Amino acid sequence: MNPVASRDAAIRAAHAFRTAALSDDLGRTQRARLLYNAGASLLLAGEHSQAIVYLRSAERLAPMWAWDLRKDILTNLTIARSAARSHLSDRQSAREISRADPERELFHHLLIVVPPVAWLVAAGALVAAGTTLGLARLAFKRGPGHVLSASVTLIGVVVAAGVFGLASDVTSQKPHAVVMIADTLPRTVPDEVLGEPLSTRCPMGTEVVVLETLGGAERGNSGPVWLGVRRLGDPAAARFWLPASAIEMIE
Asked: Which of 157, 164, 179, 214 has a CA positioned 20 to 30 A from the CA of residue 132?
């Protein structure tokens, strides 16, 4: 009935969930659930880029076996990313800078459709079937050939390795970040005067990977002043520089 009051209530709820998630007495799953609630609340409030921060943090904490939680996180993360992009004035630039990692997005969709446990059970079944076929061939000198049994086993191993590999990539501790300031101009070098601004701005909600930090000790600042980054999901992209104040790190 009152959109302004509803938005304020959602923001207060997100702050409460975020504060609760800081407790040292909580496990990874509990913290992930609280951060998910914070992100979902901000998504309801229309704070899409900040919602991405909390949902990404929840994604990194949620274990593979908490499938229902991960499904909710990934579903809301997809909505938040889409909403953040739809509010940009320069749609082409948004697609260039904020495009998703194809492997990561594919894995997200696979997780939503099929839980990781099911993938691992299927992989184990393939390995067991391949091993059984191979042993039967050795014991009874009959049945499928070694090539078939080895192929089945190999497929099972590849499926299991793929699930663990992609899961570890999604939940790894790589220093990802989200640009929070709508009109941040990336620069070629870490200097506001010498660094030429690139033609494409980094809009709010842009996700980047931090490659290098330039400290500010000589300027009386203990933290980094500039961050060398590249676009998330584009390893071949050129590095550019952003002021540290422009981004929020993912936990």
From this structure: 164
